[in-house]
Amino acid sequence: MLDNERLSGQDQLIDRFGSYFESIGFQPIAGRIIGLLSVSDREELSFDEIINRLKISKGSASVVLRRLVSECRVAVVESGRRHYYKLNQQNLFELLDEFERMCDSVRYLLNTTIDLKTDKESSNAKYFNQIINTIDRYKTNMATMRQAVQTI
Amino acid sequence: MLDNERLSGQDQLIDRFGSYFESIGFQPIAGRIIGLLSVSDREELSFDEIINRLKISKGSASVVLRRLVSECRVAVVESGRRHYYKLNQQNLFELLDEFERMCDSVRYLLNTTIDLKTDKESSNAKYFNQIINTIDRYKTNMATMRQAVQTI
DNA sequence: TATTTAGTTTAATCGCGATTGAACAAAAAA
DNA sequence: TTTTTTGTTCAATCGCGATTAAACTAAATA
User: Fold this and answer.
1) Chain C bases under 7 Å from protein CB?
2) What local confidence, expressed as pLDDT, does residue A152 receive?
3) The CA-based dihedral angle spanning residues A18, A22, A25, A28, taken in that order and rounded to the nearest 10 degrees
4) Distance between CA B111 and CA B98 in Å, rounded?
5) What are the pLDDT digits (tens) for A10-33?
6) Is residue A68's pLDDT more than 90?
7) What is the pLDDT of residues A83-105, one digit of tens each?
8) Which of A45, A38, A112 lies closest to A76, judged by CA?
9) What ranges in A3-119 are assigned the alpha helix state H?
């Protein structure tokens, strides 16, 4: 593969990272920064390199990077008067953790809903109970899988 | 539990449903409609009942309901010149389906990223490979669980 | 000390989805 | 036929997050 093909492929990927992270609630620029730090050949980039390649203002880069660092998604290394940023490699189960939190909140919502029903045998009440059972089964299953992966 | 306690509890729950569905990309009103159809005692409500209890305009109710129906989240029953709406009880694994689609798109993103790396042994490349392996293990596991649940 | 470099802060703007209100259409009722 | 009911359509507005530009600060360099 030619080098310029690779670089333009990277640019496209950066936008895809951006779209993905935007879809899960990140600011567009935050997603593209994560994308850049993921796809670029050198995996530790300076503030300047980031704003130049993504063509964003210093202001937004500053705000977004501070946030990403505070959320532990990006790590910062100070060298001289420059800041270098790199992807923070988080727990492998990060994606799963977030999904399980979502399951917990759904489970709570449905449980409370059933509590407030006059008719606990109503169509929705029965449906919600089935979902709760499925969530419980899922969580048990996941706990087992996590243990298996840990002990490899 | 007193009846008015139950009703105000329902109102709070409706807003929680709203927040939850908003967090996964629905319009605020869409989430509250789903909430209302989930928590209310009668589980089939007319257009009028919906806009009165949620205090929303006819315009937004019309637009949002049409969308919810087209997405198969809500079912509509026509009776006389009135429309009645109820929650559409979807596949139990709906939540999981969506999560697995997300896993697929992450997997694709990471795979493509590795393809474009000059150094396939770079820190990020190795990290991404680990995530891909974890996703694959997860999907295998889920397939097994689904089968188990189907055959109960 | 004066100057340059690197990044921060903040006021202003831009864009866009969500929501409403009011006019409108269709069908039932009178 | 006329009126009422039920819901739809669409232009206008509202609100808000994302982004930028430019002034500003702090630290390194000359």
Assistant:
1) 5-11, 17-23, 27-29
2) 60
3) 70
4) 20
5) 999 999 999 999 999 999 999 999
6) yes
7) 999 999 999 999 999 999 999 99
8) A45
9) 3-23, 28-39, 47-54, 58-70, 94-115
The Cα B1–Cα A108 span in angstroms is 19
Token pair, residue B138, equals 């997860």
Question: Which structure tokens are listed for B132?
Answer: 């891909």
B70 token code pair: 């087209």
Which residue spans within chain A are E strands per DSSP? 44-46, 74-79, 82-87
| Cβ distance of B118 and A6 shorter than 8 Å | yes
Q: Do A106 and B99 touch (CB under 8 A)?
A: no
d(CA B53, CA A143): 41
Mean pLDDT check: name the lowest of A2-16, B97-111, B138-152: B138-152
- Give the separation between CA A17 and CA B2, rounded to whole angstroms: 51
Joined tokens for residue B89: 């009880």
- Token pair in block for residue A148: 């298996």
